Amino acid sequence: MKRDTGLRRTRWLIPLFLALVMAGCIQPNPNALSTAEPADSLPLPEKLLLDHYRPVTIYNIPHTEITEARYPVIDLHSHPYAKTPAEVDLWVKTMDEVGLDKAVIMTYQTGPAFDSLVQLYNKYPNRFILFCGFDFSGYDKLGFGPSAIAELERCVALGAKGVGELGDKGKGLFYSKPTPAWGMHIDDPRMDPLIKRCGELNIPISIHVAEPMWMYEPMDSTNDGLMNAYSWRLDDQRDILDHAEMVQTLEKAVQKHPETNFIACHYANCSYDLTILGRLFDRYPNLYADIGARFGETAAIPRFVHAFFNQYADRLLYGTDMGNNPAMYRMTFRILETEDEHFYYHDYFTYHWPLSGYNLGDDVLKKIYRDNAISLIGPL
Predict the structure, then answer these.
(1) Most buried by CB count within 10 Å: which residue of 32, 164, 313, 363?
(2) Structural domain of residue 214, as residue ranges?
């Protein structure tokens, strides 16, 4: 009897509800789910933009949470992310939490700008290592060189432990502040006195040449790094050295100055073919490379990278170049230390492919994380 009463009530409640809706007394909820939603309003796959593709792994496989690096770490590639004393304090707190002992600050700077950074970071002299820039003022005029060397020597006297990050994507050394040197590459004869002086001062030069090869490839369906490549594309640039030519400028400089140590940032942007970097390592003992900001490119080929790290463990340096968020550091440690497979970090990489860990051994990790940096820069 109770069931029948409920059915009778339902029969007259439905017409009443519809009448009230039509009269405007009841407004339908626009956020409510409806099984009658038109098909053309659904997020159909053919309407999904490639840039919005955010896959989530469904594999039930090991997932390792790394909270702290296995060994104390020196980050050879960071920048002045902290702008105030309070922000520096917070960075040091993060470093303590994740096992980061020291960070090299690539300032690009000379003059008063460099001096201000020395003052800011000197609150923690045992945690931060500053690199200065080159002063390229007047690089396009006769007589360039002596004043730039004098400024280099002044910065070293203030504590600079290296030069960098210099940067050249094909049109010249443009990272340096405040004056970019368009049209002058690292192998230019005008650079020789500066590079030679760095060797005499026993400080390395950190330089970014080129970009990953995907940025030079056609921006079409055949480019498997398209999402990231399009953001940093170089394929449409005129009057620019291509990837191979950029690597050649680095090699010529390294070859001309065997007494000066060079750090090629980001694997010299040869992550698509690490044998190119391997051949340079074989030829030039004064060349090193940091691994910063190329975790997405290399965690796609973990077995090959594992072998490469084992072969060149004395020449590779840990670096990030991706800010100072604790989760970022832990992500890099997971890639280096574990054998986890098929995971994503969409906050840091816009490639479509999954990542996997390199599973590096303890001996290699110790060198990458710390020992090589001390060997290169000296006691820190």
Answers:
(1) 164
(2) 64-377
CATH number, residue 262 = 3.20.20.140
Q: Tell me the C-alpha distance between 141 and 175, whole Å.
A: 20
Q: How many CA atoms lie within 13 A of 231 on its CB side?
A: 8
List, in order, residues 6 or more apart from 306 with CB less than 8 Å away: 358, 359, 360
Give the sheet arrangement for strand 100-106, strand by strand.
73-78, 100-106, 128-131
Site of tokens 């002992």: 101
Q: Is residue 89 domain-resident? A: yes
Hey, is 92 helix, strand or coil? helix
Q: What is the largest CA-CA distance in the chain?
A: 105
pLDDT digit string (tens) for 41-97? 546 887 888 778 889 999 999 999 999 999 999 999 999 999 999 999 999 999 999
* d(C-alpha 100, C-alpha 77), whole Å: 12
Nearest-10 Cα torsion for 86, 92, 98, 101: 170
Give me the number of domains the chain comprises: 1
Structural domain contains residue 26: no
**1 in any annotated domain:** no
